[in-house]
Give the backbone structure.
Amino acid sequence: MSSKEAVDSVLVVNDLSVEFAGARGTVKALDGVGFSLEKGQVLGVIGESGSGKSVTMRAILRILPTKTTKISGQITVDGEDVLAMNEKQLARYRGRVASMIFQEPALSLDPVFTIGHQIAEAVMRHTGASRENARRRALEMLEKVKIPSAESRLRNYPHEMSGGMLQRAMIALALSCDPKVLLADEPTTALDATVQIQIILLLRQLQLEMQMATVFVTHDVGVAAEIADQIAVMYGGRIVEYGAVRDVLMNPQHPYTKGLLASTIHGSMAGTRINTIPGMPPDLNNMPDGCAFAPRCGHAHADCHAVSPKLKPLGNGRQVACVLDHPSLVVQP
Amino acid sequence: MNPVKEANRSNTPVLEVAGLSKKFRVPAAGIGQKPRVVHAVSDVSFRLAAGTTLGIVGESGCGKSTTARLIMGLIAPDAGDVLIRGDVMGRSAKGLKRLRRQVQMVFQDSSASLNPRLTIESSIIFGPVVHGVKQSEARARAHHLLDLVGLDPNLYAGRYPHELSGGQRQRVNIARALVLDPSIIIFDEAVSALDKSIEAQVLNLLIDLKSEFDLSYIFISHDLNVVQYISDDVLVMYLGEVIERGSTDLIYQGAGHPYTSALLASMPSPDPERRTLVAPVSGDPPNPIDLPTGCRFHPRCADVSEICSRLQPRMTQAGVSRSIACHMADRKSGHPKAGALGK
């Protein structure tokens, strides 16, 4: 990584690995994940369940269970070493420097406190604001996320709000202390189609306004296309392809990305068979040697089963972890 | 091949639903308040032609799943009938048994729909044994079906549900639905919980099985891409009502009910260079307890007019294979844009 990149980047993840100790031995959930993100940029992380998307997010926020988890590598947020932080530093870091929104807003908010109370509490705790100022900030945030009649909504309990409104409230809470990094873990997956697009547009607008570095995890390629600047495709705990959203989605290079995009159902294919990736995502308890995708890959040969390919730069910030050559990729320097 | 199926290849729809309605009572919100009523499904009617797939789309609370459960007889309707090949099934134990021989269902949660204490084989043969098929015969059929859905019976028949992945469990559920040789299978969000690559594999399987067993499908999903891919006809529901129905091609062309258009325009664009710029409709779907008057969509509709809050629109024929319940589709409704839809 060049020094210029390190200076401009708000979030730098380098060679991040996470292992979980379980009853059946150690499971390697992340293996050498790295990326960096500048202010105001959105990284879309796509992949199937078990690919390591959520574990990456939880590692960045340091909310993985401490006793059973072994984290190695570096995570730097706004120049600070996240993995070296103690509990006190973490309490300041979470919510103030980096905050997270989850798939199920109903499970992430406390059912026994009002929305206004929960936002004001975070503001008071992180900024030392008075109760009155914190409440004013809560109101301002609810207006910012376009909750109608925000004043009266401050007094609502989570169960009194619909799913879309709750997700807006969750976003208001996450952004109330002007975080540098926003971690969004499938924030629109549980929402209805007409509400999902509203939330995507809202996040896009707030992103422009507040200039957070955002990591947006989704399994839906369409959602990633709507919001991301960069895309990281994950498989079996590794990033297998990385690049600008247009390059990755329009001109995928890794056989897994190609398969994933081909098996995403588009209207034009009605009636024909879908090109599928055979087999199943790998079992983290029982990872194959070499490339994790090799057992499902149509192009696999002996090398693929022997060594696990590293991400190779292809120019333009594009990286692919595959031993195959990529003649279809035209790179302008 | 089932001789009953062969004999009934006529113009009678394999399934007809007529005026199905269901309300649920929910306890009062507080002391001194009245119990409330959820209008889950209101006057839903449709026909399923033999050998076709009918997709049902809509947002949460629109009554998709309640409709499926009413058809299966898992809950009793307040009004309306379910007809199989023109035959009213009725609600007696005998009627239900007859119905379930013909109609089977696959649910979203593949693990909750299998008994964790039964092996895969025992789960599959449970139905046929209840219906009087000999144990040995049922077992042979179960093995044959496991093979067909892509699970080697020698490896999987004796396993328990927790030993299988989500995609494999859903294949077991499909095999179980097929074992009674039904004519109709209802899929209620059956592929929604699966990873994309597995979802595609299961969809391919469903298409193969449909022609192999001469089946008709009802396919319920919130995923508009999947419904477009698999369905011949589509039913669009909103707050318990059918607001549009027609051939998949016509429905997906748009220009129908304003809600259908909004729903289609809400699909994320797969092209990062053509992103969605404006949300097609604002707000959340309302609660089916406090229903809006007149047209149930009018509070969120861009083309709302005075008549919309006053009068419920009729289902109006708009072209050969499409009906729309909107005042704009009805020439004589008095809406300023009356007759503008479905030309």
Notes: The longest helix of chain B spans residues 196-213. The two ends of chain B are 43 Å apart (CA to CA).
